[in-house]
Design brief:
Strand content: 15-25%
CATH superfamily: P-loop containing nucleotide triphosphate hydrolases
Largest sheet: 8 strands, parallel
CATH topology: Rossmann fold
CATH class: Alpha Beta
CATH architecture: 3-Layer(aba) Sandwich
Number of helices: 8
Oligomer: single chain
Structural class: alpha/beta
Strand order of the largest sheet: 3-2-4-1-5-6-7-8
Number of strands: 8
Amino acid sequence: MGDLTDNRLTIITGHYGSGKTEFAVNYSIESLNYYQKVILADLDIVNPYFRSREKSAFLKNMGIRVIGSSMMNSSMEIPALTADINGAIDDKTSKTILDIGGDPVGARVLARYSNQISLQDYDMFIVVNANRPETQTVEAVKKYIHNIELSSKLKISGIINNTHLLRSTSVDDFYKGHELSKKVFNVTGLPVVYEVAIRSIVDKIKDSGIQIFPIDLYMREDWMS
């Protein structure tokens, strides 16, 4: 995998089940190799499970600051977002990653920061899992991109192929996503910025022309499938 050349402010979005948060956590950890200060801001108010802030203690021990809802210690799921988010967006000394709810409703939370974000050099990447019914075709991905951009008032700048079936992911799954992502690029012009594979299959992918972003399943406990 090459150097992280993305903008300092990076937004990660993707449909429920795409592996968006798993990627955001792994991406934050990888960012420690390039930045002295890494912030992971959890703005996902849609998905009550597998949120990046659930791993805040683990990430803090690694040197990553996790911020999100001021209700993060409550079972209540309301968008009580703190001023820390504003500071993280503007903090030019940090690598800031925004983990955004994976549907247009979740993206609307981002819209309240759209003017502030637009003043920064930023990337917004969409995580695509070709095994999810909502993003199995080029047309479906195009529609999803349009809806996210409309709701967030920001532009997608790249595609992340994260086609998986959790621990049952095969090399065929990876290439299924690879081919879909290439087709989306041909239609939209959006580059495929990361090709994600769980570590158990990385060595089985023999195409030297593909740069792989290997991930660990931090968000799945060992007993989960």
